[in-house]
Structures are given as C-alpha cells and as structure tokens.
Amino acid sequence: MTRKCKSNFLRLLHNDLKYGTKSNWIKFAIAFLFTVTCCMFFYKSVAIKIVSQKVKELPGLFDYIVYVLGGMKEYIQAKDKTFDVPFIWATFQLLVGFAVLTYPIRDLEGRGMAILVNSENRRNWWISKCIWTVIQVLCIYAIIWAGIIVSFIVIGNYSFTLNQDICAEMIGISLKSTSGLILFAIVLPVISSIMFALAQMSLSLIIGPMFSLTLVFAYQVISSYVMSAFLLGNYSMILRCDRFVKSGVNANIGIIAELCISAIFVIVGSIYFQKYDVLEKE
Amino acid sequence: MENKVNISINALSKNIKKVTILDDISMELEGGKIYGLKGKNGSGKTMLMRAICGLIIPTGGTISINGELLGKDISFPRSVGILIENPAFISNYTGMKNLQVLASIQKRIGDADIRKTLEDVGLNPDDKRTYKKYSLGMKQRLGIAGAIMEKPDVVILDEPINALDESGALQVREILSELKLNGSVIILACHDAEELEFLSDEIFTISEGKIVGHNVLEDKKVAEEILV
Rounded to the nearest 10 degrees, how much is the dihedral formed by the CA atoms of B209, B78, B139, A9? Predict the structure, then answer.
C-alpha cells in the first residue's frame, strides 16, 4: 500500500467509524436499556425465590453475567418440553444484526457512491466496512457489559461469587467450573457475533441486507435448538461450552473456527466486491 | 492546458442478467471538453456513466483513463466528481458539514474551497438548515457542489439541471465552463435537448446500449465568449 493510499484508507476508516457508529446510537441505547431491564428482572426473580427459600442469596456479578450472556442450556427433546428460543440471547444477536444491517449497503447509494470512488480502490472500502462491523459488535457488547456492571452497582449486592443454587433454580443448570468464566464471557459471544456480523455483511451483497439478516438469525436459532460443534451459534453461549458444562462444545476449537471463518468471509467478500456492480437500488 | 485528461473507451459492453445494457461502445474523450449523452430513458446513458466511474464492471472491452486501465490498474478514476441518481447526503447535517465530510476522504481541499463552491452553486455556506429541510432544487445544487468542489479531472453529471430554476441552470453553465477551462473532461446527460446542445462540445446519442449518433457541435466559441 502506498503512503497516499494508506492515508486515504485511514481517512475512509475514520469516516466510517465516526458517521457509521453515530447512526447506531439508538441501537446502543436499546442494548443498554434491555440489559439493565434483564438484570432488574433477574434480581426481582431471585428475590422472590429467596422469600420462598429456594435460593439463599441475592445474585452476584457472576450470576448476572451467566444470566445475561449465558444463552441457554442444551435443549433435549421430550414430550412435555417445548423449545423456547432463549429470549435474551436472541435479542442480543438481533441487536448486533440490526446494528450492521444497512450502513454498508446504504453507503453504496447517494453520497456513498462519491465516497466509494474517492476511496481509490474497492479493497480499501471493503476492509474499512469490515473494521466498522467489528467495532459495532464490540460497542454493543461493551454496552451490554456496562449495563450489567451498572445494574450490579445500583442493586448493591457486591458479591463476586457464582451461586450454584441460583444457576440451578433460575437457569436449570449446574456449572462444573467457574474458572475463566469472565474471560470466556467476554471472548466467546463477541467472537461469535463478529463472525455472524461479517457473514451477514458479506451475504448482504448477494441477497440484500434483510434476507441476509434473516438467514443468519435463522442459523443462530437452529444453533440454539441443536447443540452441535458444527452449529456455530453454540459457541456464543457460555452454558454450552465444555469448560463450564459436562457435555458442552469445545470452546477453544470454537474460537479458532470462528476466527478462521471470519477471515474467510472478509477475504471472500473482498474478492466478490471487486466485481460487484453498484447499481441503483429499487 | 497542460497534461490533458484522456478517456479511451474501447468496445465496451455490459450484460446484466443476460440483458445487454451496453453494446460495443467506443469513445475518445479528452480534457477541456463537455460531452453530452442523449437518449431515451433506459437507453444506457447512466450505465455508461457508472462504467466510466468504475461503479460497474464491464463484461467486455476496456476503459482507460490517462493510460491506466479501469478495473486493472485502477478501481476508479484518480480524480472524479460524480452526480448520479438522487444526491443523498446526511440528513441531520448542514450543506457545509456534508461537503466537509465528503472532502475529508481525499483531503484535497479546505473549508475556503468548499465555501466558494457552495456560493458558486447558489447556496449559503453559513445556512444552518440541515439537509432534510432543503428543497429539491437545493439538494440538487448541493449534489453538484459535491461533484465539482475538488475541481476533479473527470466530472460526471446525470441530469444536473433537474429541479433547478433559471438562475440555477445559469450557474451550472458557468461552473461547467470554468471546469472546461481547467481541462476537466465533463460528461453529462440531460433530457433537455436544447440545454444539452448549448452546453456540449460533442453529443453522443445512445439507443439500446449502442451509440447511434455522434455530433461535434461547431461554433461553440460564440457561446463560450458570452459565458466567460
């Protein structure tokens, strides 16, 4: 990359990060409010369980983390058991999906075309959009974490232990270990969401943003229904990882696989975009 | 004019979903001239403009700009200003702010140049109104400003005088004359045949993706003297 090209790329990236991120402020606000609401609901539910003596203590930070970011335990089909999509987890996946839904494609219209032709080459534009996508995912999760921490501070029970009886009563699971929980709670959902967001952006070039969001979300829902190492949505749920539950998917392999797949989408998307016709949208 | 811009289009063709959009188009365009594209809706004018910008990839043929092949040596012309389809800017920003955002990519010009360009197209650089409150004519003027503010070598304008009043059309003529004197290649499409003939040095007539006519307009000198 020549020096001029590099400067141009950095300015393009700055433009995307500044204006593309500003356009997501409503989604960030929703993510924060939703997280806080979930934490408050969780606290209230546990408080009720304490009254009925099913649980001994109020939730600590680790409990909030597991509840908000855990996903759901493995679904095992049974006659008297219906499958419910894990609402909190699904909402966060959709929020990420909506955060990266339209900006890249919309930026190929109107003034976006002028920016594209000024970006000097198509690869610059694509890589800038990929970086923008990753940043949006990081922002969403930073806000979710902010929501958890704010709720934890406001509620006032400053405990940092994981209560197994809360897990068993509220989530229906016993974690075999909490070692590395924070690290995996930070890393797993983020890497998974980054992969899905990059997939969604790449697919939107071919099938449009709404169809790509639908396809990606459908895949994620199927992942929540079936626990399999090949359904990558499983790796975004702490409650499905072998580090924390007995029959879980291998989190380490999942992280590597998702990073590789993310790279593949970036590369394939770049190759496809080299030949992409920027036409007037109907 | 030194280092004249040169665009060479050879046997350009484009198919989209088995439909021929552009068919064996060849043109030589040089700096310091205004080229008009004439044709019915759907004849291929806008597609040709998009091809020259690098926005669509030809199925066959080549486009070279100053000897560099589009799609091979370069993805887009190195210095180009475009106004194709509706100019859509950031709705919550003023006109000045919108152009500052656009100019920040290449960083070739400063605020003073942007202000002058806005004045040239008849907009007030200090207008606090946001883009969403602009009239259609104002939006068109801002689109033109965005295309020309960096004094690009290649200027592509699709229906520039749409939604403009008489004074707006006159300002566009003056701007195009100035760009022409600077050595830019100007390619424009206009449904107003009279206006197109007045503005252009050469007119290409396009029908069903093919060039079916090419007029080199004489006696432009008189008209240019009036403008300048």
Answer: 120
